[in-house]
Structures are given as structure tokens and as C-alpha cells.
């Protein structure tokens, strides 16, 4: 077995394009699962919040429970089955409820073969599914090209998978779940004990500075305007990149995310896709900027310093 692994690893090192192709296929398959995470995880969170609220009311506010009625209080907030998680129930067409066959669930290709329609009822299937699969595959293929077969590639891929899920959830729900950001934060600190992307000292300082920088801006903005300019999830996501890349990359991440966010926000306002004053999620811009800094941060910094 060890000999087989050694030969396989040697083959990948000698054939980088094979490694890139295999990485794309594997990541696109993971992207199919990320579609499930993006759709189901917020539903699971809302159900958990409802259960916690109901339990609190039943324990401490019996008069309110009596007034509302226990049946109404425990009524589900959605129409999904009672047993609903990332694995159950199996994937099915939202219109006709027909279970999706395994050969109809192949990343990207199944959607193209089915021409974007359900095999059973011909209801349209959102192009969002193959797009997320394609983006995930391309991102990880880029990591394979950049890092090659290495632990840096493995950890960078894990980071990328979670960033894709966080981006989709934030776009849909304006939410960056702690259940995803906090494990990433701790993972970044742990892997950098071996200087994977940064030194342990730089990672610890980066996590603290990443969180406190946006936290300070949040409170300064709130004191001046009385409004909340961003969510706490944004603080934690920037802390993630501080923990993974070190504090030195944080100015670049903040600059890139702010620039991209400003350009897209103004474009959406001008094109009337966003009313002025309406909130837009900032997490996707932090995620994109952090991912770029992961691969090309030092080159960008060196280029900028060379132009001064």
C-alpha cells in the first residue's frame, strides 16, 4: 500500500496536469455537496433557533405559551420534512419531489445533459448548481497549479471549500455562521504551528488584529451614524485570514475587499439592482480578497512596494 501511494505521488509530481485535472474533478464533486450546504444549513440554523426560543418560552414564560398555544408555538417555520439535515432527505426535484438519480447528479455534466431541466417533470433547474460546481473546481485546480501536491494544497483546498459555502450563504441570508468561521480560525492557528503559511506568532497576531480592526470600524461607524455597517461574521472572517496568512496580509485583504465591494455596490446601484441604503453582504468580498492574497499576496505586495 505504501509503495502504491509512493508511486502515485511520484506520478502526480511528474505529471502536473494530471494532478490539476484530478483536483478539478474532485473539487467539482465537493461543489455539488456545497450546493446542499448552502441551501440546507441556514434552514437547519433557523430550526435550531426556533427550538431554543420555544424552550425558553416554555420554561420561563408559561403565560405567553398559553396565550399563543403550544401547537402554534411548535409549528415548523418551513415546509421541509422533520428529519432535515445535510444528508437527509436525499436530493429531489423541488417541484415534483422525484428523487434525483445518481447519474443525474454528476457535477456540471448532468445539468448540461438534462439541458437544465428535471428528468421527470421538465421543471427548470437553476444554473446556480453547475456554476458553483464549476467555480469550486476551477478554484481548487488553480490551487493545484500553484502549490502542487503538498500539505499547503490540502489545507488551502479545505479553506476554499468553506469559503465557497460561506459566500453562498452570505449572499442568500446575509449570514456567516460561526459553525464555519470559528473552526477555520482555529485550523489556521494550528496548521501555522509548522509555518504552513505564516509563523505561529504572525498567525496569532493576525487573528487578533483581523477581528479587532473591523470591530473598531464597526463601533466607530455605529457611534457616528447610529447604524450597523457590517455584521460580526465579517470580523471573524477577517480574523480567519489573519490566522491563515499572518497579520502582514491583512492590509491587502482589507484594501482588495473594500475596492471590489465598492465597485460592485456602485455598479448595482447604477444598474438599479440595488437601492441606495440597502445592505449588501461584505463576506464574499473578504473571501475573494483573502483567497487572492493566499496565492498572490506576496507578489502583489512586492509589486506595489516596487512602484513606490
TrEMBL record:
Bilayer topology annotation: Multi-pass membrane protein
Its EC number(s): 2.1.1.-, 3.4.23.43
Signal peptide residues on this chain, from the entry's feature table: none
Keywords: Cell inner membrane, Cell membrane, Hydrolase, Membrane, Methyltransferase, Multifunctional enzyme, Protease, Transferase, Transmembrane, Transmembrane helix
Positions of transmembrane segments: 17-38, 151-169, 181-198, 204-225, 237-270, 282-305
Residue span, Prepilin peptidase A24 N-terminal domain: 25-147
Taxonomy, superkingdom: Bacteria
Residue stretches making up the Prepilin type IV endopeptidase peptidase domain: 158-266
The UniProt record lists the keyword Hydrolase: yes
Keyword Coiled coil among record annotations: no
Major localization listed first in the record, in broad terms: membrane
Compartment list: Cell inner membrane; Cell membrane
Alphabetized InterPro entries for the sequence: Peptidase_A24A_bac (IPR014032), Prepilin_IV_endopep_pep (IPR000045), Prepilin_pept_A24_N (IPR010627), Prepilin_peptidase/N-MTase (IPR050882)
Reaction catalyzed: Typically cleaves a -Gly-|-Phe- bond to release an N-terminal, basic peptide of 5-8 residues from type IV prepilin, and then N-methylates the new N-terminal amino group, the methyl donor being S-adenosyl-L-methionine
General function of this protein: Plays an essential role in type IV pili and type II pseudopili formation by proteolytically removing the leader sequence from substrate proteins and subsequently monomethylating the alpha-amino group of the newly exposed N-terminal phenylalanine.
The family this protein is said to belong to: Belongs to the peptidase A24 family.
Protein's recorded name: Prepilin leader peptidase/N-methyltransferase
Amino acid at each position: 500500500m505504501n509503495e502504491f501511494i509512493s508511486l502515485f505521488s511520484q506520478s502526480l509530481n511528474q505529471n502536473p496536469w494530471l494532478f490539476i485535472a484530478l483536483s478539478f474533478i474532485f473539487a467539482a464533486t465537493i461543489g455539488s455537496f456545497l450546493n446542499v450546504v448552502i441551501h440546507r444549513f441556514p434552514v437547519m440554523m433557523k430550526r435550531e433557533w426556533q427550538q431554543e426560543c420555544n424552550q425558553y418560552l416554555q420554561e420561563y414564560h408559561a403565560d405567553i405559551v398559553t396565550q399563543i398555544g403550544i401547537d402554534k408555538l411548535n409549528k415548523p417555520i418551513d415546509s421541509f420534512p422533520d428529519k432535515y439535515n445535510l444528508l437527509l432527505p436525499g436530493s429531489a426535484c423541488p417541484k415534483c419531489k422525484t428523487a434525483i438519480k445518481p447519474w443525474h447528479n454528476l457535477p456540471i455534466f448532468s445539468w448540461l445533459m438534462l439541458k437544465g431541466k428535471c428528468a421527470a417533470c421538465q421543471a427548470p433547474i437553476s444554473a446556480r448548481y453547475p456554476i458553483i460546481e464549476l467555480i469550486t473546481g476551477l478554484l481548487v485546480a488553480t490551487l493545484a497549479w500553484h502549490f502542487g501536491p503538498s500539505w499547503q494544497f490540502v489545507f488551502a483546498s479545505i479553506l476554499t471549500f468553506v469559503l465557497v459555502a460561506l459566500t453562498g450563504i452570505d449572499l442568500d441570508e446575509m449570514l456567516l455562521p460561526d459553525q464555519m468561521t470559528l473552526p477555520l480560525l482555529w485550523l489556521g492557528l494550528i496548521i501555522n504551528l509548522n509555518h504552513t503559511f505564516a509563523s505561529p506568532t504572525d498567525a496569532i497576531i493576525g487573528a487578533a488584529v483581523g477581528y479587532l480592526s473591523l470591530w473598531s470600524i464597526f463601533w466607530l461607524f455605529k457611534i457616528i451614524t447610529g447604524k450597523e455597517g457590517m455584521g460580526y461574521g465579517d470580523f471573524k472572517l477577517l480574523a480567519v485570514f489573519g490566522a491563515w496568512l499572518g497579520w502582514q496580509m491583512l492590509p491587502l485583504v482589507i484594501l482588495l475587499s473594500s475596492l471590489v465591494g465598492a465597485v460592485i455596490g456602485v455598479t448595482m446601484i447604477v444598474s438599479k439592482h440595488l437601492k441606495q441604503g440597502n445592505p449588501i453582504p461584505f463576506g464574499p468580498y473578504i473571501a475573494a480578497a483573502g483567497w487572492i492574497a493566499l496565492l498572490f499576496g506576496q507578489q502583489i505586495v512586492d509589486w506595489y512596494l516596487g512602484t513606490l
